[in-house]
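Feature request, filed as a ticket because there's no other form

It would be nice if the structure record came with a short human-readable summary line next to the tokens. Right now we just get the raw output. Example of a typical job, pasted below so the devs can see what we mean:
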Amino acid sequence: MDKSRIAFLDIAKGIGIITVVWAHAKGPYSSYIYQFHMPFFFLISGYLYNPNPSFGEFAKRKAKSLYFPFVFWNLMALCLKAATGMAHMSLRAFLKTAATMVLAVEKDGQFFGATWFLSALFWVSILYKGLDCFWKKWRYRRACVTVVFLVGAVVGFCVDFPYMLSRNLVLGGFYAIGYWIRENQDRLKAFWRWELAVIFFGLFAVIGHNGHANMGSNDYSSPLGFVAGALMASYAVLYCSGQLSQWKLHMAGKFRKLLCFLGKRSIDIVIWQFVAFRIVIALQLFIDQKPVTLSEILKYYPVYATNHGWWVSYTLVGILGSILWGDILKTGKEVVSQCLGHHRTEG
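Raw output as currently delivered:
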């Protein structure tokens, strides 16, 4: 993939992560965003699927980028809640919850609920790679893998499995569609037009206005409408991203760089956005003259109040605070690694 295509996808991820935080901050039109933002990210993830590494190497990379962050931060949050008395549970319940995290099937994650995305993407990508490797000698293996994932999505819509596995099946269908688009992009060039982007955006607005989708509870006013709307909205966003990647205007270049930067930091934002929201919650509690204690700050989920434009503060702090904290953690990790390396050298 050339650099322009990578930039184009980073821009798309940047737009996508802004919509994610916007929706979680209860901004305007959030009900529309909830009907496409997660399918959009899984579609992009499927497009970026790399068939070249062995299964072991692929699994190692996904474990490092998705599985270990999910398990580590959720176990930390669970232990913190248990130690501070925020989570009242027996030892058996604690161990059971911890086990679901280690298996990466905890339905929402204890870490303020945003990290389920990591576990879902981990299992979807591992399953896709596993089937791709299992049928690697068969000429039509990719078509079969796509069909399996699409059938799985249909089953996910129809059956409510425990641990929100239905949601994973539905999102797996979008992952498979993403890579199908990648493989057939030359054939699909004729359909890459601004007229279609405008039409699809308008149709999505109609579908979004008349429908609703809650992936957590596997509740959709129309599964077919949800899929169609999510695909059409994704098309519109991807088309706009493609155009932005080619604009030569000075201000457009700055905006493009900002979106690329946010796209590259999307995992940090996914993990830390709800934690960063606590800053705004603490400020609102102080303004309302309520106790600004840890238990009070953590009690409100995902936000305290978003009227009078407060949703803008949540969105900005959710993005910027997540990036800043991610940088602090990375710097700390590098310092620790250097110290350990220096210690080993001296030893």
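Something like this underneath would help us a lot:
The chain has two domains: 34-263, 265-347.
The beta strands are 213-214, 219-220.
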